[in-house]
Specification:
This protein is an all-alpha fold. It has helices spanning 2-12, 26-37, 40-48, 63-69, 73-81, 96-103, 106-114, 130-135, 139-148, 162-168, 174-185, 200-206, 210-218. It is 52% helix and 0% strand. Residues 1-23 form the signal peptide.
Length: 222
């Protein structure tokens, strides 16, 4: 409570807000600050006072997306349980669900999946949450998104699937190899080429990713 009062008092004195603010009330600004800090108790107190759960900052972010950026799990839980929209997009088309998937914030991802995450939603590159998760080698996140039912062979605006992105933008290391294994086991089309007609196997061989190339060849890649 003391922390909440301090935030409100600082705002009243004209102190700099922790996030860009556009036509926000004092309490909405405090909600963003609590989300940034991971202060679930302050969040619940503000919401109990009638503060809207999904106000927007100058970048179009909701408090839930701000909490997701910082991987503040308990803050995200408090907001989601109060009805925050897990699919609310900001100015660059990120949502709490998409961002949690892309960054491997598995606990928050689980919360979004349990509260209506739109598995077909896409980011500014036209990719599902699975594609950047595969690119970054977030093995458990990839496993969870596959289990949730995200389309395996969705093609983004760059012409890449999750399998292609795991190869083209990955480092070929153990995590990337595990991601490829998961995608192949889930039925990914190992011969689905990119927009220039280059196959996953050709990309793997060009980059010297011998272990991945062997996995693909074993799965019937050409």
């Amino acid at each position: 409570m003391h922390k909440l009062l301090a935030i409100l008092f600082a705002f009243a004195l004209g102190a700099a807000s922790p996030l860009p603010v556009q036509a926000q009330t004092m309490q909405e600004t405090a909600l963003f600050a609590a989300a940034t800090d991971g202060d679930a108790a302050a969040i619940r107190d503000l919401l109990a006072r009638g503060v809207a759960v999904d106000p927007r900052d100058a970048k179009g972010r909701t408090p839930l997306l701000v909490a997701t950026h910082a991987n503040r799990v308990e803050a995200a839980r408090a907001l989601i349980e109060a009805g925050a929209d897990v699919n609310a997009r900001d100015a660059i088309h990120d949502s709490p669900y998409l961002y949690a998937g892309a960054r491997g914030h598995l606990e928050i991802l689980e919360l979004t999946l349990a509260h209506g995450a739109d598995l077909a939603s896409t980011n500014r590159f036209g990719g599902t949450a699975l594609i950047p998760a595969a690119e970054r080698g977030h093995v458990e996140t990839v496993r969870r998104l596959i289990r949730a039912g995200v389309e395996i062979d969705h093609v983004n605006r760059l012409g890449w699937t999750a399998l292609l992105e795991a190869i083209v933008l990955g480092d070929g290391g153990p995590r990337q190899q595990q991601v490829v294994d998961l995608l192949v086991a889930a039925g990914a089309d190992v011969n689905l080429a990119d927009a220039e007609g280059v196959s996953p196997l050709a990309h793997a061989r060009r980059r010297g990713f011998d272990a991945i190339a062997a996995r693909l060849a074993e799965a019937g890649a050409k």
